[in-house]
Amino acid sequence: MQYFVSYWQIIFVITFFLLTLFPTLLSALTLKKNKNVKHNCSPLPQPRGALPFIGHLHLLGGKQTIARTLGAMADECGPIYLLRLGQQQAVVLCSWEMIKDCFTNNDAVTATRPNMAFSKHVAYDYASFAISPYGKYWRDIRKISTVELLSKKRLEQMKHVRNAEINSFIKYLFKKCQKHVEHNTLQSGVISLCKWFEYNSFNIVIRMIVGKTFSPDAYEKNGTLPSQFKKLIGKATYVAGVAIPSDFVTWLEWFDFVGYIKCMKDVHKGIDMIIGQWVDEHIQRRKEQENVTYEDGDFMDVLLSNIGEGCIMSGYTREVVIKATSLILLLTGSESTSITLTWVVSLLLNHPEALKKAQEELDHIVGKERWVEESDTPNLPYLRAIVMETLRLYPPSPLAGPREASEDCYIDGHLIPKGTRIIVDIWKIHRDPRVWSRPNDFRPERFLVENTSIDYKGVCFEYIPFSLGRRACPGMTFGLQVVHLTLARLIQGFDIRAEKRGPIDMSEALGLAMPRKSPLHAILATRMPVEMYDAL
User: Fold this and answer.
1) Which CATH code for domain 38-534?
2) Which of 68, 228, 236, 484 is the most buried (most CB within 10 A)?
3) Sorting pLDDT into bands at 50, 70 and 90, what band is 41?
4) Which pTM value belongs to this model?
5) Cα–chain center distance at 8
6) DSSP H or E run through 93
C-alpha cells in the first residue's frame, strides 16, 4: 500500500511539473522574444524570494494586507515591478508617475478584467459589469447604471431615500442614548457603530435598487430573508478577496483544495434565489399596473424598462443581466460606504481635536435649530477634508480592481506583454512622502492648506480613492453623499467617545476592502434638543 501511494504521488508531481512549469517557461520565452522584437527594454525588477512553479504567490500571504505587502516590495524594487503568480504575470504600479503613464496612454488597452473564479461562479459568469471584460456589453450596462441610477439627476430624485434611512439611523441612536440615561449605566451606552453603519448603508442601497427597506430587527433575527441575504452578501464579499489557486494556475480549479469554489457556488445559489424572487415581484407588479413608469421607481424598474422582454445581451438573458447588475451594485455600494464611515469615526476617536473642530463648524454654519442637509456640504470644508483624509489613508479599494493588458503596451518604457495583469497599489500611492508630508498621520488640514488643488475627479494622479479611467468607480458621487450626510448628522447630533481610555486599535483585517480588524464600539451622548430627534 505504501508503494502504491508513493507511485501516485510521483505521478502527481510529474503532472504538476509538466502542466505548471511548461506554461511558465513558454511565457518566459515569449516575453524574451517580444523584448527582442521591440526595443530590447530592460527587464522589470522582481522581489526576491520567488519559488519554482508558484513564483511570488507565497509572499502575498501573512498577517498584513496585500496592499501593505506590495508597498513594502515597492520599497525594495521601485515604483514598477513584476510579480510571477503561478502561470500569471502581474505588473505592480506604486507611484503617481506610473499611474499617469499607464492610464494616460494605455487606459483602453488595460481596461479589461482578467478571468477570475469569483466572476465566473458568483457574478453570473462575468455578467456583472464591474468585473466583466471590456467591450460593448460592459459599455451598455455601465451606461444604463450611470445614467439611470448614479447620475446627478437621478441621485437628486432619490434624495428622499438617503434622507429617510439616515433619519431612521439617527433616531435609533437617540433611543439607545435615552436608554443609557434612564438606566444610568455605562454599558447600555456602548453602541456597535460598525454594525449600524453596515445596516444603514445596506438599507439605502437595497432601497434604491430593489425598493425594499428592512428594520434592524429583521437583519438581526435569524432565519428572516434580510438576515439570510445580508449573510450571503457578507460571504460573497469575503470570497471576492480570497486568493483562489485556480486564478493563477487555471487547471487547479478541478481540485478545489480548500473548498472555495464550492463555497462560491453555494453563495451564488442563495443570492440568485433571493434576487430572482425580487425580479419576479417587479415583473408581476408591472403586469398588474400597466401604466407603471420607472421615474419614481427603483433601479430594477429602470432595468426592466430599458431591457426588453426576451432580449439577449452578449449571450445573457434579460433576467441574468438584471440579477448580475443588481448584485454588483449591492456588493460594492453598501460595503465601501460602511467601511469608510467606520474608519472616519475611528480616526476621529483617536483625534478628538478634529472631531471638536468639525462640530464647531457645524454649529457655526448650520446651528442646532435644524438638521444638516446635503446642500450644506459645500459650506463645510473641514468636514469634507476629514472625509478626504480618511479616503487617503483607507481607500475603499486599496488595490484598484485588477486589469489585464489586451495587447502589448509600454509603461515607463517597459514592454508589458498581452495578458499581463496590472495591479495599482492605491494605498502606497496615497502615502508617497514626495506628495504628502507626514504621510502616515491623520491631518485633514492638509487639504485646506498644502494640498488644496487635489480632488476626487480623477485628474489628480496622486489621489485616486475611486480609481481612475474607464474603470473608475461610477458610484463616487453617491458614496460621498451618503458618507458626508451620515457623518455630518452623526457628529451634529451626538458627542462620541471611545469605549475605553487610550487610543483605539486601528489594525486592518485581511481582504480587498481593508475593513477594521476589530468591531468599532463607542459611547454616545445627545447634543441637540430632544425635540429635534423627535421631529425626524
Assistant:
1) 1.10.630.10
2) 236
3) low
4) 0.89
5) 43
6) strand 88-93
